Amino acid sequence: MLVEVFSDTVCPWCYVGKRRFEQALAARPDLPVELRWLPFELNPDLPAGGADRAEYLRAKFGNADRFRDAQQRLRDIGATLGIDFQFERITRMPNTRRSHALIAWAGGASAVAQADIKERVLRAYFSEGRDIGDSDVLAALATEAGLDAGAARAAFGDPALHGQIATLEAQAQSWGISGVPAFVFDRRWLISGGQEPQVFIELMDRIAAESAATA
User: Fold this and answer.
1) pLDDT single digits (tens) 177-199
2) N or C: which end of the chain has fewer CB within 10 A?
3) Number of independent structural domains in the chain
4) Mean of pLDDT values over 143-162
5) In sequence order, what E strands does the chain have?
6) What does each C-alpha distance from 144 to 21, 47, 152, 168, 171 come to in angstroms?
7) Which domain holds residue 160?
């Protein structure tokens, strides 16, 4: 079963969706799943160096504190999933292209390496308040994951890798995906949002049953 997940690294619901989907996978340990983490930039036009987060929120929404209640809800949900949301630590709104390049590059090593880097990037941003648009931060995350920091830095500027990211994002749009997270199962079924684990489990069971019936 192929599961392709489009998400952004500054999307808190993408983090929630990741953990809930992992719970679903843990509930079906014998189900063979090929998992791919794919890019979807929510703010592709941000400068490469990002922007001050408070200024960005004021410019886009008129009030930097507009999402205070929503953030508290996310903190409460995150606490049940082992996510330590620390929104007050976040000072930069990063351009996420480099973080997606790192995740895509790690995927070239293995699915395990990609999942590990994906988790490290999300934790660095949402729990540690690190600037995941910064090359030094991302190279450090690669080192922490046991990967080659020099090769990771090369990936940040690799035209072929950036072209791959653009192609995948265009693919998502062609599939009608306009928000994330978006979980695409065998390129036939779509689950949008950070749904509860049971939603994923029910679909995976249905796919497995249909596959068994046609085997």
Assistant:
1) 999 999 999 999 999 999 999 99
2) C
3) 1
4) 96
5) 2-7, 34-39, 51-52, 92-93, 182-185, 189-192
6) 24, 27, 12, 27, 32
7) 2-214
